[in-house]
Every structure is written in C-alpha cells, then in structure tokens.
Amino acid sequence: MLPLLSLLLLLAASPAAALVQDFCVADLKSADTPAGYPCKSVTSVTVEDFAFAGLGAPGNTTNIIKAAVTPAFVGQFPGFNGLGLSMARLDLALGGVIPLHTHPAASEVLFVAQGTICAGFISSGANKVYLKSLNRGEIMVFPQGLLHFQFNSGKGPALGFVAFSSHNPGLQITDFALFANDLPSEVVEKVTFLDDAQVKKLKGVLGGSG
Where, if anywhere, are coiled coils annotated (predicted)? Predict the structure, then answer.
C-alpha cells in the first residue's frame, strides 16, 4: 500500500497530471499572476493565438549596446501561456553586446544562426566562468538565475535565437540595475568599489540619477 501511495503522490505532483485542458491561451486584458495569465474563452481562441511572426524581422541595433532583443514572451505571444516556453531574437551589430544579466525564472538555450557570438555564464558560489565562442549552428545553455552575457566576436553582424524554460523568464540587467535608476551614487560606490567619477559617468550614460 505504501509504494502505491507514494506513486500516486508522485503522479499528482507531476506536470502531466496537473494538465486538465489542452491549452490556456493568455487573456492579456487580465492581470498576470504567479501562475500565469487567466485563459481566454475557448470560443475566442483562433489559430493566430498559436503563431507568431515577430521574430522574422531584425531589431534596431543603433543604440548604446549595438544590439536588439526581440521577445516572444507570453506578453507578445499569448499561446505560450502555461507551457513553460518562450523565445527571443538577438540581433548584434559589429561590436554588439548583450550585457551581463540574469533570468530569475528560466534557463536559456542560445542558437547561433549567423556570425560568431562569444557567450558565457558565471556560476554561483565559486564564481567560475564558463566562456565559449559559438559559430553558426552551435548552441549553448545558461542555467536558470545565473549571470550571463553574449557579444558579437565576429567580423560582421551576428544573429541568434534563444529559448527559455518559462513563458515569462524575467530579466535583470546588472548595469541597468546599478546605473540606470536613482540608487544613490554613494551606495553604488560602496557596494561596487568604483570611484565617484566612474559611477557618475555610467549613470550619465545609462540615464540614472542620484
């Protein structure tokens, strides 16, 4: 009886057992919740809810990072709601960079479609760096929550596509978290060991204050 009870508890906790309907297309008119958006009425769902053309066009890379990220998260592609999936397109001009950042809610896989992208992540605890130059057709995985980055290390434009293990992976860019808000300069200096001139320069570049 005990092994059977354990098996039933295991099945009850599995994602497959939790699936009680075929899909849950997001009702973007409602508020998001930790469990995702509420479902649209099935009668209002169409095939267009399961297709997305937004990753077909290049993003604008005329900016400070010379790069563009075009997301296909649940907010852009409601069909992803509840499926534990999302995607994005990375366009990197010559010298383009996706700065050090983290996705609190998802692991990430990068596929290089064009050019050469140098990518890496930093482990927690030991702070070990895993760095790799990726060419067309190669992939790399970035575990959930770890700081990671990508930059164009080739001689021309680079293009990548990324997939996430959540319909809404979240994003925090380290540079923006430190220098693109009103966190007081003296606090930034204390926690980063940067001097006042460096902090104020970076705040000026990224639009921060304080």
Answer: none
